[in-house]
Amino acid sequence: MADEKIRIILAKLGLDGHDRGIKVVARILRDAGMEVIYLGLRQTAESIVAAAEEEDADAVGLSMHNAGHLTLAPAMVDALAAADLDLPVIVGGIVPDVDVEELEKAGVAAILGPGASAEEVVEAVRAAVDARSGSAA
Amino acid sequence: MSLRGLPASEVFERALDGERRALGRLLTWVERGGQEADEVTELAHPRSGRAHVVGITGAPGAGKSTLTGQLTRLLPALGVKPAVLAVDPSSPLTGGAILGDRIRMDDIAGEAAFIRSMATRGHSGGLALAVPGSVRVFDAAGYDPVIIETVGVGQVEVDVAGAADTTVVVVTPGWGDAVQANKAGLLEVADVFVVNKADRPGANDAKRDLELMLDLSHMTGQEDETGYRPPIIMASAIDGTGAPEVWDAIEAHRTHLEETGGLEARRAGRLRLEVENRLHQALAGRAAEALADEPGEKLLRQAGERTLSPAEAARRLARDILA
Question: B100 to chain A: which residues are within 8 Å by CB?
Answer without folding.
Answer: 38, 40
